[in-house]
From TrEMBL:
SUPFAM superfamilies: Adenine nucleotide alpha hydrolases-like
The species this protein was found in: Acetilactobacillus jinshanensis
InterPro entries found in the cross-reference section: Rossmann-like_a/b/a_fold, Universal_stress_UspA, UspA
Coiled coil stretches, renumbered: none
The protein's name in its UniProt record: Universal stress protein
């Protein structure tokens, strides 16, 4: 049987939430993009869940939260540039599941989504189900769920 040529992904969506696993996903996406830096672009996105984060919140709290999330994304954008990878950042509001699987894929038309297998919110996972599972079922493209391992754990803490 002839060896199959591995697909080159050129338009990669990386949803992040600041969790350890989302940092690992970003590192994996950067590794993939570095192999073809002239033809690959990363779209690093964060979805702010309006329901769980904003219920009864003041405008000042929402602004502070959004600014903190923007700082996180700018830090990730800087890391991408240090790796000589083309990237952009986006903050969206809504249900992370639907926003990643539908809105962000409609916006960017990725050929791959790279995301952490487990995010920040255990409560949301119990009440609403796993974002990663939903995205892997509903997204119109390939989805790579990045799990933690001992080597990448040390690398992501840097």
């Amino acid at each position: 049987m002839a060896a199959k040529k591995q697909k080159q992904y050129t338009n990669i969506l990386v949803p992040v939430d600041g969790s350890h696993n989302s940092k690992l996903a970003l590192l994996r996406a950067l590794d993939m993009a570095e192999r073809h830096p002239d033809t690959t672009k990363l779209h690093i996105a964060h979805v702010i869940n309006e329901v769980t984060n904003f219920a009864g919140a003041s405008d000042q709290f929402i602004l502070k939260m959004t600014n903190n999330d923007r700082k996180m994304l700018n830090k990730y954008l800087k890391v991408a540039k240090e790796h000589h990878v083309k990237a952009d950042i986006k903050i969206m509001y809504g249900s992370p599941k639907a926003t990643i699987a539908h809105d962000l894929t409609d916006l960017y038309h990725p050929d791959l989504i790279v995301m952490g297998a487990i995010g920040l919110s255990k409560i949301e996972r119990v009440l609403l189900g796993s974002v990663a599972v939903y995205v892997s079922r509903e997204a119109p493209c390939d989805v790579l769920l990045v799990k933690e391992d001992h080597q990448s754990k040390a690398k992501a803490k840097k």
